[in-house]
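User: I'm writing a tutorial on reading structure tokens. Could you give me a worked example: one chain, its sequence, then its tokens, then a sentence or two explaining what the tokens reveal?
Assistant: Sure. Here is the example chain.
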Amino acid sequence: MKTPITLVSTPGGWPDDSPARSACFGLPPQGESGESYESLASYFRRLSAYHGLFPRVFANRAVGPLFHDQEVRTLDFARDTFTMNGAGARAAMWVNALEKLTMRSDLASGTLLPLRTHVSLEKLLSQRECFCPSCYSDDESVGRQKYNRLLWSIHCVEACPLHNTLLETVPERSKPKRYTFWLPGLSRIDGSSLANHETRKARKEQVRSAHLVAQLLDEIHQFPEAFSNCSRIGEFMQHAVNTLCDGSGRRLARYLGVYHGRVDSWLSGQRASLPILTIIANRCDCKISDILLGKNVKLRKKYASADGYNKVVQRHRRAPRFKTSDALVAALEGLDKLGLVSNLSQASRLLNTGYCSLRRLAPGFAALLVRRGQEARHREKLARDEKLFNEYWKCFQDVLSENARPTRERVEARLFQQSGIKPVFGFNKLHTKALALADLSSVRHNENVQEKPCSSKVVVSYLGKVQMSYPGYL
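And here are its predicted structure tokens:
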């Protein structure tokens, strides 16, 4: 029988009324506002560094045994790096376990758990680790340990609201090696500081969306009692329909750029994703908390600028434009006479109709367009192959001019040095073709290259391979 893990205890010889000691250091999380709250994943990585353990080892030996579910005690740390910042059951287990280990009660501020009853989990967390170089630089300037903000782990946040710069992606290793640098703010390639990374200016819409999400994080952590009830998005949407669109839900859907069925579902109380809530708050000039709490605030239409912010792509059924095959065939023939259609995808885009409608109403013309597209792609492939061989043949001749044996390794090294093209498996055919085109007798019997003369069987073998790889060339 395994001995249960003791999380808190009093050292021997201490008075009985002395406070218990935690199993891990009670490291305080960083940040005091929505723009600077530390994410739970960053807190855990700093905590493991304080104990001198790799995060994966610390997670499996200290955190995993505290999970109630037997199936999740062996953790997949690569996946949990993203899920522990969210609003699901996995994040709740991480918060509960780390609070037991550190005897703290404020670690939920590094997650989105207060939003679990208000927003959908769809497109909530980003699947890549982002950072702001200017924030890391601020940490270094004040002598503070660099840490990742919770705001950076949210899917719809693309900019830093403090410095108006775009968030950058943490560079990864090109080849799998031992995971050495795990502290926030350090490069995983060479361990250098990410504060020196180049910054890019963000658009106004991206900065405003980041401000809205940061403001929401501020409110849910400062006034958690206001978000204790269920979402009241239906009341807000009804207020928006009546105020902005004279009671027409379809007009509101058209203004927001979504399918009208979405507006109907929100009116019935269905939860929306955080990217959708950000778009609604942007277009209605309000806060995200106003939408979730159903407040009847003053609204006004706020149209996007010429740049526009990223919209959530909503896929819906396309209304059929052609109901008879004669009308569709006539439209296709008109485009064909003008030379505007070369494949099925192009015809579908020009006529604003789906592939299924084209194949159902005009099967013969659709098959013709498919063949045209295949032939065009085949011609493009032949052109690419010919261009690649010309580069290879040029390097092949350069090696010959140096009185060296034109082996495949030498030619590939010369090709990579001159044009940056990396060798691939298909270079076997290129080398065979180059040998067949070269003067084999002069190559093999060159007085500066000492090797045996090539037999006639080898020459015939090379020529046969070229004929099979490139029919009609010889």
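What the tokens reveal: Residues 325-374 form one domain. Residues 363-401 form the longest helix (39 residues).
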